[in-house]
Write a structure and sequence with these properties.
Number of helices: 3
Strand order of the largest sheet: 1-7-4
CATH topology: Ribosomal Protein L22, Chain A
Oligomer: single chain
Helix content: 25-40%
Order of helices and strands: EHHEEHEEEE
CATH architecture: Alpha-Beta Complex
Largest sheet: 3 strands, antiparallel
Structural class: alpha+beta
CATH class: Alpha Beta
């Protein structure tokens, strides 16, 4: 079982969601999580759509070594990338949590992202054959969790 990264209950009307062992980059997931935290769900979904359509990059704050500058970043950090696969997983997660909020009787259009966490998941063992023998490869995964609060 995946350990939650939050330790206290968040006051107010909330909806929670989690994705375990998603086959996406943990580094890109962390950068997306820092960008969308504090946004409303409509703004976050619109931002993720723009990233998927390659119109706005995700600023790389921590993992920025050998990352080129991109147009359209209006922050102090100018380096960025377009992690499409990770954005699609985040978009699916946010839509699922909005559905959870509807089921609980909350107003899903008026929700704010209070908590987002991206942690490293399980490493899948795999086998790679070469002409010199068989080598083991570990394919990495990421755990995501999100909490929305009604504003």
């Amino acid at each position: 079982m995946v350990k939650r990264s939050y330790s206290m209950e968040i006051p107010g009307k909330t909806a929670k969601g989690m994705v375990k062992n998603a086959r996406i980059s943990a580094k890109y997931s962390r950068e997306i999580a820092t960008k969308i935290k504090g946004m409303t769900t409509t703004k976050a979904l619109a931002y993720l759509d723009r990233v998927i359509l390659l119109k706005e990059p995700v600023p790389m704050r921590r993992y920025k070594e050998h990352v080129s500058h991109q147009k359209g970043i209006h922050d102090k950090i100018k380096s960025g990338r377009y992690p499409i696969k990770a954005c699609e997983v985040f978009k699916k997660l946010i839509e699922g949590v909005k559905t959870n909020a509807d089921y609980k009787g909350l107003d899903s259009s008026n929700m704010k992202i209070v908590h987002v966490a991206a942690t490293r998941g399980w490493e899948y063992p795999a086998v790679h054959k070469t002409h010199k023998g068989i080598k083991g490869i570990r394919r990495k995964s990421t755990n995501l969790e999100i909490i929305l609060q009604e504003t």
